[in-house]
């Protein structure tokens, strides 16, 4: 009898453990599946965000935010896709929404400042950057700080921020170009020319820097093209820029000659240069 009681108790114990084991396994599987779903969804968000059509990404994230308004990853995706779609006013509002969520980070506030700059809301951008602690030292933060300082003509701060930004990136061509344009706007043409040259050493294909380099040389009445890599079409465009710079300096005959050279150099009909030359010739 005693053996029967012990056997029954043992069976109950085994069955209880089996039942608990199934329950534990079920919970573990559910957790694992949830983790997989989060990973898959995160990957999908990245794929959508980097899709070729930014407006399609906007539509996807708008639907996602409508279904899950407090999901910060969906809100970030919407804000970033609006920037890609060049819908900057909407993007600024979307980043504002992101920064209001509990899980918002300093990086999100930097993105908000970027969106505000794109809408020419410089004062708001500065206020936003002021909320980011000094410990958040990133390339984008300092590049934006430099641009804001430029907008306020705080040249000393701008130079410091540009220099810091350059030290935080492996691709500083764009920063050198922006810094050079800052120097150009201040009338420091020689230093602007040097910085544009640095930009082109980093990225020989950056046409904006080529064009700005020509502007800096033209402002010094140096009307010869720099020795840089350029296509035939680029050469014609740079000659056109140089011509306009010469005319602005009052060297009209030089400008006319440069326009003729630009028209002859361009592999196709260079309508803009032709119209500019006609205007000069007709007084």
UniProtKB/TrEMBL annotation:
Keyword set includes Cell cycle: no
Gene3D superfamilies per the UniProt record, alphabetical: Tetratricopeptide repeat domain (1.25.40.10)
Keywords linked to the UniProt accession: TPR repeat
Keyword Transmembrane: no
UniProt cross-references to SUPFAM superfamilies, sorted A to Z: TPR-like (SSF48452)
One Pfam entry name: TPR_16
UniProt-recorded name of the protein: Tetratricopeptide repeat protein
Native organism: Tritonibacter horizontis
